[in-house]
């Protein structure tokens, strides 16, 4: 399976390379042409300075000048086209991989944190930005030796001077990189810390305001941001120092070329045209090397970003499985499931086995922190067990492609999530489910009447803040989302929390109706709820580090279970 997965994703990356191949060849040719055109100026100088003073031919001067200007104009035109090609290539890369990454990160069974999506996209942005802006200088860098060789051909001494200057430039660039590396690491860490702090504060704005945490948070932010600024100052001071040295070295090279050139003319080894031609070629070589050195970091960052993107694309947790048509009829099976959170010493769930036929209900009970949410997430395939399997029949849920999983499973997370969009879009999972299905789901969740009382009904825009909706109304919209299309398996994490008694009873009735239509229901509760107990055919009590699966004999047993006693027969 792993081999098949890798092969499939390699195709995505290699297909992109294959599709880019023609463009890359064109870019190399453009680069070759425009650099060849750069030789027009030194050739012109050789001809004009050495021949015209002797021949005194104005026509030749005009003709050569027109020719060199045409070559310069052609070179500039090619450069414009080359830059345009690189920009388009960069945009193409981002367009091609952006949706794949977002979709992959959002549907990953590992449920990566949101920061991971941001990181993946910023890696992609880095690759795009390098291709659009930095790649040209690295394409040109291969021409540095050719320009140096040109000045070497005019005179070995001038070639050696140019080569030494470029060599020194490389050493300075390495020193610049090396001397700022640690400061950049510290600055990036501080910057990330400050950013996370602001995002957290923004997310928990209400608590920050109500509990007067703003000055403490500002102080904390200032410490991180201040650290970043100090390091940035240090980095910039060093960078400026090396940049000035590199610029100065360029000036020294130009002066040196003239000085050595003139000396060579004095000793009769060179002409005036030769001096200027060699000086121009050495100047081109140096400038191209300097540009590449300036883009050194962006090349390195783009390489790291590319490697990480490639890894992400090869790390697609969704295996292609053949979905048996019988999956909709198959039981939900938890087969010796164990799970431990990263960094924890204890398993939250250990060797848990339970099976639920279509139409059966399971109620997971336990006090805070006993693992109800973890188990719900294991069942819907957001996280994968450490050992054991969660299956629908023979198929592991976490391995089911996301689009198929979405039709099979409805899920209400513990924290109600409302997306920016209309009520209808929120219930239809931002898709285009038929309106009747959306209404049916809203009716089951007991929110239909409230929605049609809104000014724009199902088209009313709402968002994460969802002002204008009570906590219970938000919850019922999220419940409707879970019920949409009456999926094969519905997992509800604390569905009764925040609901009043009448709504709880109505929800209990809705769950019974869904069960009667063949849905398997898994619900959790921290506090006893009679409608949920009535819905359940099986009970699972978490707590005290042990798990026991029990068959309900009566809802009373569930009540006993709330305090950690009662219910003990394993299915
Ligand atoms: N991402 C995580 N990393 C490490 N430990 C975690 C993580 N999520 C939960 N835990 C730990 O796993 C245990 C079970 O947490 P879980 O949220 O599943 O419990 P719960 O029964 O749903 O709690 P509550 O009713 O308070 O929501 C807790 O001890 C919790 O601290």
Automatic annotation (TrEMBL):
<keyword id="KW-0472">Membrane</keyword>
<feature type="transmembrane region" description="Helical">
    <location>
        <begin position="61"/>
        <end position="81"/>
    </location>
</feature>
<dbReference type="GO" id="GO:0140359">
    <property type="term" value="F:ABC-type transporter activity"/>
</dbReference>
<keyword id="KW-0067">ATP-binding</keyword>
<dbReference type="InterPro" id="IPR039421">
    <property type="entry name" value="Type_1_exporter"/>
</dbReference>
<feature type="transmembrane region" description="Helical">
    <location>
        <begin position="129"/>
        <end position="148"/>
    </location>
</feature>
<dbReference type="InterPro" id="IPR027417">
    <property type="entry name" value="P-loop_NTPase"/>
</dbReference>
<dbReference type="Pfam" id="PF00664">
    <property type="entry name" value="ABC_membrane"/>
</dbReference>
<keyword id="KW-0812">Transmembrane</keyword>
<dbReference type="InterPro" id="IPR003593">
    <property type="entry name" value="AAA+_ATPase"/>
</dbReference>
<dbReference type="GO" id="GO:0034040">
    <property type="term" value="F:ATPase-coupled lipid transmembrane transporter activity"/>
</dbReference>
<protein>
    <submittedName>
        <fullName>ATP-binding cassette, subfamily C</fullName>
    </submittedName>
</protein>
<dbReference type="InterPro" id="IPR003439">
    <property type="entry name" value="ABC_transporter-like_ATP-bd"/>
</dbReference>
<dbReference type="GO" id="GO:0005524">
    <property type="term" value="F:ATP binding"/>
</dbReference>
<feature type="transmembrane region" description="Helical">
    <location>
        <begin position="244"/>
        <end position="264"/>
    </location>
</feature>
<dbReference type="InterPro" id="IPR011527">
    <property type="entry name" value="ABC1_TM_dom"/>
</dbReference>
<dbReference type="InterPro" id="IPR036640">
    <property type="entry name" value="ABC1_TM_sf"/>
</dbReference>
<feature type="domain" description="ABC transporter">
    <location>
        <begin position="332"/>
        <end position="569"/>
    </location>
</feature>
<feature type="domain" description="ABC transmembrane type-1">
    <location>
        <begin position="25"/>
        <end position="301"/>
    </location>
</feature>
<keyword id="KW-0547">Nucleotide-binding</keyword>
<feature type="region of interest" description="Disordered">
    <location>
        <begin position="552"/>
        <end position="571"/>
    </location>
</feature>
<dbReference type="GO" id="GO:0005886">
    <property type="term" value="C:plasma membrane"/>
</dbReference>
<feature type="transmembrane region" description="Helical">
    <location>
        <begin position="21"/>
        <end position="41"/>
    </location>
</feature>
<dbReference type="GO" id="GO:0016887">
    <property type="term" value="F:ATP hydrolysis activity"/>
</dbReference>
<dbReference type="Pfam" id="PF00005">
    <property type="entry name" value="ABC_tran"/>
</dbReference>
<keyword id="KW-1133">Transmembrane helix</keyword>
<feature type="transmembrane region" description="Helical">
    <location>
        <begin position="154"/>
        <end position="175"/>
    </location>
</feature>
């Amino acid at each position: 399976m792993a081999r098949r997965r890798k092969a499939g994703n390699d195709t995505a990356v290699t297909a992109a390379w294959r599709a880019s191949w023609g463009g890359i060849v064109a870019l190399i040719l453009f680069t070759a042409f425009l650099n060849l055109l750069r030789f027009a100026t030194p050739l012109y100088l050789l001809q004009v300075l050495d021949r015209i003073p002797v021949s005194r031919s104005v026509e030749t001067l005009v003709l050569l000048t027109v020719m060199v200007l045409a070559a310069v104009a052609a070179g500039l035109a090619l450069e414009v086209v080359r830059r345009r090609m690189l920009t388009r290539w960069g945009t193409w890369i981002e367009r091609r991989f952006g949706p794949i990454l977002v979709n992959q990160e959002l549907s990953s069974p590992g449920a990566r944190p949101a920061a991971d999506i941001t990181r993946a996209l910023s890696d992609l942005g880095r690759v795009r930005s390098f291709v659009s802006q930095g790649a040209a200088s690295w394409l040109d860098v291969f021409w540095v030796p050719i320009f140096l060789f040109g000045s070497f051909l005019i005179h070995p001494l001038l070639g050696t001077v140019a080569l030494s200057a470029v060599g020194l430039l490389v050493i300075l660039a390495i020193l610049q990189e090396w001397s700022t590396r640690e400061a950049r690491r510290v600055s990036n860490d501080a910057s990330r810390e400050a950013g996370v702090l602001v995002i957290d504060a923004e997310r928990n704005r209400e608590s920050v305001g109500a509990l007067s945490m703003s000055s403490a948070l500002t102080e904390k932010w200032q410490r991180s941001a201040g650290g970043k600024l100090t390091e940035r100052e240090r980095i910039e001071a060093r960078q400026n120092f090396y940049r000035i040295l590199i610029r100065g070295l360029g000036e020294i090279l130009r002066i040196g070329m003239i000085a050595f050139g003139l000396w060579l003319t004095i000793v009769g080894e060179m002409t005036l045209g030769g001096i200027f031609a060699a000086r121009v070629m050495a100047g081109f070589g140096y400038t191209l090397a300097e540009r590449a050195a300036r883009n050194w970091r962006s090349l390195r960052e783009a390489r790291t970003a590319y490697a990480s993107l490639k890894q992400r694309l090869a790390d697609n947790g969704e295996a292609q499985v053949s979905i048996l048509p019988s999956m909709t009829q198959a039981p939900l099976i938890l087969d010796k499931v164990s799970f431990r959170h990263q960094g924890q010493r204890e398993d939250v769930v250990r060797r848990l086995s339970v099976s639920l036929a279509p139409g059966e209900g399971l109620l997971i009970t336990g006090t805070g922190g006993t693992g109800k949410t973890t188990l719900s997430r294991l069942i819907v395939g957001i996280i994968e067990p450490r050992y054991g399997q969660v299956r629908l029949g023979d198929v592991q849920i976490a391995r089911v492609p996301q689009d198929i999983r979405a039709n099979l499973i409805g899920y209400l997370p513990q924290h109600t999530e409302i997306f920016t969009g209309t009520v209808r879009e929120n219930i239809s999972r931002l898709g285009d489910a038929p309106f009747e299905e959306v209404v049916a789901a809203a009716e089951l969740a007991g929110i239909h009447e409230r929605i049609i009382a809104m000014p724009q009904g199902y088209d009313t825009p709402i968002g994460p803040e969802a002002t204008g909706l009570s906590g219970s109304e938000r919850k019922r919209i999220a419940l409707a989302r879970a019920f949409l299309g009456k999926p094969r398996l519905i997992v509800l994490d604390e569905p009764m929390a925040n609901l009043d008694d009448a709504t709880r009873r109505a929800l209990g009735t809705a769950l019974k109706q869904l069960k009667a239509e063949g849905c398997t229901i898994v619900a959790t509760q921290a506090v006893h709820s009679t409608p949920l107990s009535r819905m359940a055919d099986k009970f699972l009590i978490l707590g005290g580090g042990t798990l026991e699966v029990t068959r309900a004999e009566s809802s009373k047993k569930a009540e006993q279970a709330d305090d950690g006693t009662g219910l003990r027969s394993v299915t």
